[in-house]
Write a structure and sequence with these properties.
mainly beta; globular; 60 residues; single chain
Length: 60
């Protein structure tokens, strides 16, 4: 099952409340990076771990 997240505040061109799925998690030399897709899978973004924790809430 993919992890589902929701935006806490406006981020880049996306509005608060937009839902995303994490499709890829990677770590290279201690730096984590995440690739997320919107719920309808039409948009894709790549973000750092700090951007994820600062701007997103994980949904259960």
């Amino acid at each position: 099952m993919m992890k589902k997240y929701r935006l806490k505040n406006n981020f880049r061109e996306f509005k608060k409340g937009t839902q995303f799925y994490i499709i890829v998690e990677s770590e290279f030399i201690g730096v984590k990076e995440f690739v997320l897709r919107t719920e309808d899978l039409s948009e894709r973004i790549s973000i750092s771990e700090s951007e994820l924790t600062r701007n997103f809430i994980q949904l259960k």
